[in-house]
Amino acid sequence: HYSEELLKKSYLRDAEYVVIPPGIDCSIFRPLTKVKSNAPVLGVMAAKPGDELKGFDVILNFIEFLAQNKNMKYCIHIVGSLDAKMQRFLSKYSFVKHSPFVAEEEDLSTLYNSFDLFLNFSRQETFGKTVIEAQSCGVPVLARRIPAFEENVLFGELIADVHPASVIHIVKQLLERSWNKTEMHACMQRYSVQNMAERYIKLYNSFF
């Protein structure tokens, strides 16, 4: 696991440790009936998506690419806290929607379920919880190829080339595929809070 590799490089490298990732509530993050939209919805979600490490520059380049290629009909829905200047900038694009970040998991699940594809081009993540939540909701993921996502993106695609022309090529491929949302949700149960709790209990019992 990527987290274990980070620990091996830290001052804890000689200590004994067990890595248990954060879990998600799969009873909340589950497939829901999707409201039909006029164009495929590509979702972006983070508490602060504008942070440099979140790869927001890739999203901005992709938005500009779509603006120049008006025959490509997509909706980009960005969820998260953006400053006023960025909000004004994005408002000039009719196909871009911005929503403030929400903390309630039920609301997050509803947002994930409104997406046809989830995008995450972070440069660095220790776990990448949003891609787990999206897949648990039955939404495939297109993400940058980084170690954390190599472990967690099971339904979708990882790419190293994040140039807009490369991104749109994979976007089209993923949207053309048929995804079994029930199967996706079942597979993500490995990251459920119940599963993680059992691992904590097992670890605790191993001390005695």
Name the descriptors.
alpha/beta, globular, 9 helices, six-stranded parallel sheet, 208 residues
What is the SS-derived class?
Answer: alpha/beta
Gross morphology is: globular
Strand order of the largest sheet: 3-2-1-4-5-6
Which residue ranges are poorly predicted, with pLDDT under 50 across at least 5 consecutive positions? none
End-to-end C-alpha gap = 26 Å
Largest sheet: 6 strands, parallel
The helicity comes to 25-40%
Query: In what range is the share of β-strand residues?
Result: 5-15%
In round numbers, the mean pLDDT is 92
Number of helices: 9
What Rg is obtained from the alpha carbons, in whole angstroms?
A: 18 Å
N-to-C series of helices and strands: HEHEHEHEHEHEHHH
Q: Could you tell me the number of beta strands?
A: 6
